[in-house]
Amino acid sequence: MSWQQQILRVNLTSGSCDIEPLNMSWANDYLGQRGLGTKYLLEEMDPAVDSLSAENKLIFATGPLTGTMASTGGRWSVITKGPLTDAIACSNSGGKFGAELKLAGYDLVIIEGKSETPVYLHIENEKVTLCDASEIWGKTVWETEGLLQKKYSDPLMRFASIGQAGEDLCRYACIVNDLHRAAGRSGVGAVMGSKNLKSIGVRGTVGVKNANPEHFMKTVNAVNARMNDREGMSRDGTLDMIDVTNSFGSLPTRNNRQVRFEGTEKLNPNAMQTPNKNGHTNLVTNGACFGCTIGCGRICKIDPTHFSVKDKPEYHKASGGLEYESAYALGAACGVDDIDAATYAGFLCNEYGMDPISLGGSIAAAMELFDIGAITEKDTGGIKLEFGSARALVTISEMTARSEGFGKDIATGSKRLTAKYGHPELSMSVKGQEFAGYDGRSMQGMGLAYATNNRGACHMRADPYESDFDTTEIEGKAAIVKNSQDEISFIDSSGLCLFPGGCGWTLSDYLELVDGACEGSWDMDRLKQTGERIWNLERQFNLLAGLSKADDTLPKRILEEPAELGTGKGLVCRLGEMLPEYYELRGWDEDGRPKADTLTRLGLN
Amino acid sequence: MQVTVKIFGKLRHYMPAGNSAGNYPINFDLGESLEQLITRLPLPKDRPYLVLHNDNKVDTAQFSSIQISETDDIIVLAPVKGG
């Protein structure tokens, strides 16, 4: 089987690093990564703890297919209680770090306690060392990786680190691996910072075993052949979506005041791939994570003459560029159509360790506060924080990254920011986490998905896309959202990426790979029940953390202000009609609590 | 007469060279229907798509009842997911 069957437990308070056997009963019930990490977290920790206290735990988790030959088998997750939402946080990343961690022999690394002084963790197979991080504390992610790479002189060593945003407890700080991939959402980097843990560097050479490698490789090849619709994703990345949502009228613009942005032609794949007036082209090439045969990543360069980087040669090199979500959040949400400014803000997110969706969403909320006069230049330190201002976007992104001035307010996230200035209704978030790039009025299913997602607003935990692009009627949406949430919970626990699902794979392809990696006892019923079990486990965590039905909601704007344009013209999100049906399908009571028979059926009581 | 159809998402790959922005000018005769126009677009037969006509989503069954004019806003999208 493709589990390593061991976990690494690191207690930062005592400095101990212990290797323990994996609980295989839990692995069979929760698979790996998201599901298994959540199981360990809930078993070992009171969900009511302060997310930034030593009592919170931080779990780095791989799946059974992480580090194998399966296409996209490089996924890994960070599971903890999130400081942005005070709910379960599970943040998923790619790159090469996760596979290296698995190849070092670990399914999970559980970080507990808090170090008195900054440290980093060095893992080389079974040799595990906590090291003094005083020389890298205060450095960016990029500087940290550079210094540690130089120290260990091993180009195959992989790192997952926080930047200054994590050290300064930015509520949406992320953990960045391989320079520009990230466990991005919900503030997992702030938890790492609160523990004085700067980085994890890992090198693994023990490999991943499989009981029947010949059969597994045949399965991998057969499933790979069915990924037959990936050219678009390779060429244009996820950014391809921006023209689709804009045309459809579901591109959140200027803090969801509008659903269509007039500047998309300056942000879309064509703009990224076409030389500008200086002959500079934003896109350099595409990039792929470990084992990936799609390569959706964007590797980009900022025009060196652009105001944001004119005298900053360190930003003239190629790095991770705009994807759909960052282009939406740092572009349309702020009304900014300057691709270089948005790319620069994205670079800052990678360099300092911030989630670009929540950064953009928080800046957009601040721009609306500025627009209505709730904050002024006196509050912002002289910045005219106007919608559409690329210079304001650049300046406030720098201030947030460095925790300077008004940037400290932006770093608290839109929920806390708008509450501080008396307009909580202007936070476009669920459970405190900022919206992704879809408006819940023209995409009713996505509205329900945002409201019910255990980690707050998110576009990656349900799949109502096909239905939402087909109709704004709500019949059937609750079932589509519920079923796809369960299926994605399973995929997120496998070590595989969701994107093959848009490139030709079906759920059966994921099932075949898991079955091949986990010794042939998996069928579709078990897959779906495992996903449902994971979803309900996360729900239990949130209920114990103090969340309730009241948190399964959307901002007033989406519930009461009809969209002015597009396919959702005249509509608000009909969440109130969909939510009871959703609860019923889930086997929850009217207050959104799993009923006893639901828990029994899933083995959760 | 001519109308420019905007084609977005994965369908852009099927446009002739020089149409990378997704704008596809197409000639039509007075009285021609949306169905006739769509039939002449270089769209793959095995890929789903949806059509927006003057900001309204149009079901396939309605294509033949809509007459095209030069001022129409016609968008053809491939439904996609993720981000």
Structure commentary:
The complex is a heterodimer of chains A (605) and B (83). By secondary structure, chain A is an alpha+beta fold. Chain A is built from 25 helices and 17 strands. Chain A has a six-stranded mixed beta sheet with strand order 2-1-6-3-4-5, sandwiched between helices. Chain A has a six-stranded mixed beta sheet with strand order 8-7-12-9-10-11. Chain A has a three-stranded antiparallel beta sheet with strand order 13-14-15. The mean pLDDT of chain A is 97. Chain B has 83 residues and is mostly beta strands. Chain B has one domain (2-77): Ubiquitin-like (UB roll), CATH 3.10.20. The interface between A and B is medium-sized, with 41 and 22 residues.
CATH architect. name of chain B: Roll
CATH fold description of chain B: Ubiquitin-like (UB roll)
Put simply, the count of helices of chain B is: 1
Largest sheet of chain A: 6 strands, mixed
The CATH architecture of the largest domain in chain A would be 4-Layer Sandwich
Provide the low-confidence segments of chain B as ranges. none
Can you tell me the number of structural domains of chain B? Answer: 1
Radius of gyration of chain B (CA) equals: 12 Å
For the termini of chain A, the CA-CA separation is 28 Å
Reported for the largest beta sheet of chain B, the result is: 5 strands, mixed
Q: Identify the CATH class of chain B.
A: Alpha Beta
* Straight-line N-to-C gap of chain B: 38 Å
Shape of chain A: globular
Structural class by sheet pairing and helices of chain A = alpha+beta
Averaged pLDDT of chain B, please? Answer: 87
Beta strand % of chain B: 25-35%
Radius of gyration of chain A: 22 Å
Query: Which strand order do you get reading across the main beta sheet of chain B?
Result: 2-1-5-3-4
Helix content of chain A: 25-40%
**Name of the top-level CATH class of the largest domain in chain A:** Alpha Beta
Total of helices of chain A: 25
